[in-house]
Amino acid sequence: MKTKLHKFIILVVLSMITSRSYAQEQDILKEKELIKEVIQSAYVDGLCNNADEEAVNKGFHPGFYLLGIGQVNTIVQLPIYNWIEYAKKGKRSGLKYSFQNELTTIKFQFIDVSGTAAVAKIDFFEGDKLKFNDYLSLLKFKDGWKIVCKTYYAIPEESKKE
Hints:
Blueprint: H1 2-49, H2 53-59, E1 60-69, E2 75-79, H3 80-92, E3 104-114, E4 117-126, E5 129-141, E6 144-154, H4 157-160
Parallel strand pairs: 1-6
Antiparallel strand pairs: 1-2, 3-4, 4-5, 5-6
Helix pairs in contact: 1-2
């Protein structure tokens, strides 16, 4: 009798663990989809393709910075409000974005979520040309996920031709 009871208890405990694990996995998948939506609407469509300031403001935190390497090993910082202005200038001049004439698309390499923090690695394309590997950091606020920082690797021209 005790053996049957022990087996039953073990099955119940395993079932609870499996159910909880499955629920957590589903929650993370849901968060990843929300993150993809923010990146697509605010960054790709809002900033790059349409210069839509409302979409950008919805998905980027006002404290956002783009960080890159400048000359002589300095860090270049571009706040979101400057990036929005560059995008709007490009749109007014007839360009999709200040430096591009082709549609921007992305390919997600990965998204990693830990509670209210996440990072996404994406390949950034102009037309069919890979231009950047972007690393976007996001935080989840009460009103949803916001992009708070971007670092990137610019694909060298010789690699772009291949």
